[in-house]
Specification:
The complex is a heterodimer. By secondary structure, chain A is of the alpha/beta class. Chain A is built from 15 helices and 13 strands. The longest helix of chain A is centred in the middle third of the chain and has 30 residues. The N and C termini of chain A lie far apart (about 50 Å). In chain A, about 60% of the residues are buried. In chain B, helix 1 runs antiparallel to helix 2. The two termini of chain B are about 20 Å apart. The chains are: A alpha/beta, B alpha+beta. Chains A and B meet through helix 1, helix 3 and helix 9 of A and strand 1, strand 2, strand 3, helix 2 and strand 4 of B.
């Protein structure tokens, strides 16, 4: 039988160390809504999402109350809309109408975000993919709940540089259209390489075509719990350090597994995957960078950071994989800047640069995340940053992403405040030299060779 | 059987256990195990209870117990047992 010290330990994790289930995300297939008539399509989409997700929020709240574990977000991920809207949409404005429909149904069912306003263009862009991509700035400016993602490359296909170049322009345009809200639109837009089909985390969540009609996936979190556990083993060897992270990750993931199975059972929707990610929030003590400090770094970004992060990421996976039957999504430590107070502190202290962040993304999920750069940065430079990140993903067979905010009217030394879970970000300097000729070549970077690994 | 863990945390005063137990008896909740300890000067009690015969919905009973605790200056929490089982048992 459970003993009192175990009960106290669990409740301490929840009450003092910010243990929570970060998200229950319901993936919904919309391919069967496809129709040549835009109004019919929108009605079918609205009806299907409402039918499947109407109890999602209440179920999440019930589970949260019964087990005493906070479930922070309830979200929906849908089939990439470029696939669903192909027959009905002739202009970017047509796609914006779908975005408004999705926004309306997201508000109606009460979810925090709806992801899947997406296009998968890792090898080439179809006409409908391009129309959707061109509609993103307006879609994000005119909606509150929609998240958008574009997959521009993969290990198997290489990198679609035409899409990379276009996304540089789209990110700039999104920043401009949401200028009065600190370019917030860019916080809901991510460019991916090797995007997983079952990721429950925003902004990159979508319901891939390899998935069932509907699934429930859960993203767990708990950097605070890992940090607290590491405080107890200060100065110990790497063996002890790794063992402690693994044990903690196991416990965190088990809670996620319980919530996922309950949610799946109550909603009558199959369980998809658990995403074992350490996702920080701006709250003190809920930070991945604080874990890195606890491992022995003065600031995130100090020499040794990449090694410490690699170790952390790997141990989280090792512990988590045993705790759940199905692990998927991004599964690793997130290193967003604006959403993690100790990362912000590291940037402001001059310890953490864009280049170091790029190195860190080689060993963890996901990529350059929630980074604010000067509004004067050119579209070509943004595209260059995306290409670099996509190359890391392509060569290392991992997911990488760029969620970057060229904040209009802001320069290095300023900061942008998003509020809530998105936090605030100091504007980081970008290498001033041009990559315009490189980005402008057109075409794609071929898929890499899969042997001779060095 | 639907087992629930009730925890009571706060400054120790007279009659905490009595009040919680009376509430449980009135609602046909069977107590299977009780243990208590003091952590950093705080009174910590844990009960394992069986709520199978309880007529009220879980949520409502949990809210009323929390309210009862507030009156005594302690925090009372009801959680289904599985969360602890999942975390601490393989």
């Amino acid at each position: 039988m459970i003993n009192i010290s175990e009960v106290i330990e669990t409740n301490k994790m929840i009450e003092q160390e910010n243990l929570d289930v970060r998200t229950i995300t319901m993936g919904i297939n919309l391919l069967d809504c496809a129709d040549g008539n835009l109004d019919v399509l929108c009605r079918k989409i609205y009806d299907k999402i409402l039918r499947l997700a109407k109890d999602l929020v209440r179920t999440g709240e019930d589970i949260s109350k019964e087990y005493g574990i906070p479930i922070v977000n309830k979200r929906i991920a849908v089939t990439p809309i470029a696939l669903v809207g192909g027959a009905a949409c002739q202009t970017p404005d047509d796609y914006v109408q779908i975005a408004r429909t999705l926004d309306r149904v997201a508000r109606e069912v009460g979810v925090n975000f709806l992801g899947g306003y997406s296009a998968i263009v890792s090898k080439g862009m179809s006409r409908s993919d391009e129309l959707l991509i061109r509609s993103i700035p307006r879609a994000l400016a005119e909606t509150d709940f929609i998240c958008s993602s574009v997959n521009v490359g993969s290990t198997k296909t290489g990198i679609n540089m035409d899409a990379v170049k276009l996304m540089g322009e789209i990110i700039k345009e999104t920043a401009e259209l949401t200028q009065e809200r600190m370019s917030l639109g860019c916080a809901k837009l991510v460019v991916l390489c090797n995007a997983p089909d079952d990721n429950p985390f925003m902004a990159g969540a979508f319901h891939g075509v390899s998935e069932a009609d509907a699934v429930v996936s859960v993203g767990v979190s708990g950097p605070g719990v890992v940090k607290y556990a590491l405080e107890q083993v200060r100065g110990a060897s790497f063996e002890v350090l790794c063992e402690t992270i693994k044990r903690t990750a196991f416990k965190i993931t088990r809670v996620g597994q319980l919530v996922a199975k309950e949610a799946s059972c109550r909603l009558g929707v199959p369980f998809g995957i658990i995403d074992l990610s350490l996702a920080p929030t701006p709250a003190v003590g809920d930070s991945v960078a604080e874990i890195l400090q606890e491992i022995g770094l003065e600031y995130a970004g100090a020499p040794g950071t990449t090694a410490a992060l690699a170790l952390l990421n790997d141990q989280v996976k090792k512990g988590g994989i045993m705790a759940s039957s199905y692990v998927g999504g991004l599964s690793g430590a997130f290193i967003p800047v604006s959403e993690d107070q100790a990362m912000i502190d590291a940037v402001e202290a001059g310890a953490l640069t864009l280049e170091k962040l790029e190195a860190m993304t080689c060993v963890c999920s996901v990529g350059l995340d929630m980074i604010a750069i000067p509004g004067s940065t050119s579209a070509a430079t943004v595209a260059g940053i995306i290409a670099d990140e996509a190359a890391i993903g392509m060569i290392n067979q991992k997911t990488t992403a760029v969620r970057i905010i060229p904040a209009v009217g802001k320069e290095v030394g300023d900061r942008v405040e998003f509020g809530g879970l998105l936090g605030y970000a100091p504007i980081m300097p970008v290498n001033p030299y041009s990559c315009e000729a490189f980005v402008g070549r057109g075409g794609r970077i071929p898929a890499p060779v899969h042997s001779f690994k060095n | 059987m639907s087992r629930t863990i009730i925890t009571v945390v706060g400054k120790d005063t007279v009659g905490i256990i009595a009040k919680v137990c009376t509430f449980l008896a009135e609602h046909k909740v069977n107590i299977l195990d009780i243990s208590q300890t003091i952590v950093q000067d705080y009174f910590n009690m844990m009960m394992i209870v069986d709520m199978t015969d309880m007529e009220k919905p879980f949520e409502q009973a949990a809210a009323e117990l929390a309210e009862l605790g507030k009156g005594m200056g302690v925090q009372v929490k009801c959680q289904r047992e599985e969360i602890f089982d999942m975390m601490h048992r393989i």
